[in-house]
Specification:
Layout lengths: L38 E2 L7 E3 L24 E3 L7 E6 L5 E6 L4 E5 H6 L4 E3 L6 E6 L5 E6 L3 E6 L4 E7 L3 E6 L5 E6 L4 E5 L5 E4 L6 E6 L5 E6 L4 E5 L5 E5 L11 E6 L5 E6 L3 E6 L4 E7 L3 H4 L5
Antiparallel strand pairs: 1-7, 2-3, 4-5, 5-6, 6-7, 8-9, 9-10, 10-11, 12-13, 13-14, 14-15, 16-17, 17-18, 18-19, 20-21, 21-22, 22-23
Length: 306
């Protein structure tokens, strides 16, 4: 993050809304023109089939679900034209659903469109598979992000395209829990923070290692990120400074990335998983590691299979 930029004001500061002048030109990134944007509202038919509880037991549940013997779904959404679906997200009221897929498209559904076989909007203009989709804290906007780093923001009420950003190869994205601010982490270690809908941007460059994961702490003023080199950093969003850095020396030529990270909702603890079958629990107010849990089988620890 450039040291010349004026920090964003976040919940808990004197002013809740961020000023337009809080982002200086040196911190801005290019906002892409989206002339080739193509939004179809109901003209491209998805293949949405109701699955009846009675009938042939050999009903096809779709690619990858051959032989599925669980509870039959009420509906199967196959509007991604047979491509893999990589992400889904509901709005805060549970009225709308986004699905992002390998076909470089995100589809938006509501209760009516699910039954009528048509998504209410097909969000196009992506350059690669849509791997992250989410609604803002108040569901007034939603974002769709692809692997190549194209990030698009849309207005939920109208499905209107609002703005497009471009980053490096994308690893993750999420919204602030109390403000229309969007975050994204990338393959080159950068963390982007955008104000929506203005598009003002700040970039946190705390590492050259791939930023594998991130989470916002409950106060809404600090972000914790995990990296491919095994490091964990905590950023102050207002100053842009790294206020805590947990690192572990690795054998030469080896890396054990931090693959996921989360925090307790009430206490001052965060927990991060490392690929080398370890979990560290950190009390971030005292800047120390409280627990170091060795896990014998990584997959069983996260609910997978031995």
């Amino acid at each position: 993050m450039s040291e010349h930029g004026t920090p964003i004001q976040l919940p808990g500061d004197e002013a809740y809304d961020m000023d337009e002048d809080s982002f200086e030109e040196v911190d801005m990134i290019e906002v892409l023109d989206d002339d080739d944007l193509d939004i179809n509202t109901g003209t491209d038919q998805g293949d949405l089939g109701d699955v009846e509880d009675e009938g042939d037991d050999d009903v096809n549940f779709g690619p990858g679900l051959e032989g599925f013997v669980g509870i039959k779904p009420d509906y199967i959404l196959t509007a991604h034209m047979g491509s893999a679906v990589f992400c889904t997200a509901f709005d805060s009221a549970g009225h709308k659903l986004i699905t992002g897929g390998e076909d470089d498209t995100a589809n938006v559904w509501d209760s009516t469109s699910i039954k009528t076989r048509f998504p209410i909007c097909k969000c196009r203009g992506h350059a690669d598979s849509v791997v992250s989709a989410s609604f803002s804290w108040d569901s007034s906007f939603f974002a769709t992000c692809d692997l190549s780093g194209v990030v698009k923001v849309w207005r939920t009420s109208t499905s209107e395209h609002v703005i497009t950003f471009e980053t490096g190869d994308l690893c993750w994205s999420f919204w602030h829990k109390q403000s229309n601010v969007l975050f994204a982490g990338t393959d080159d270690g950068s963390i982007y923070m955008w104000k929506v809908p203005s598009g003002d941007c700040k970039i946190f460059s705390g590492s050259t290692s791939k930023c594998e994961c991130g989470t916002l702490l409950p106060d809404g003023k600090r972000l914790v990120a995990g990296y491919a080199d095994g490091g964990v950093k905590m950023f102050d969003l207002k100053s842009g400074e790294v206020i805590q850095h947990f690192a572990k020396s690795m054998p030469q030529g080896e890396q054990f990335p931090v693959l996921c990270i989360d925090h307790h909702k009430k206490t001052q603890y965060s927990s991060n998983w490392m690929f080398r079958r370890e979990c560290k629990t950190v009390q971030y107010t005292e800047r120390k590691i409280n627990y170091n849990l060795a896990v014998h089988t990584w997959w069983s620890a996260i609910g997978g299979f031995n």
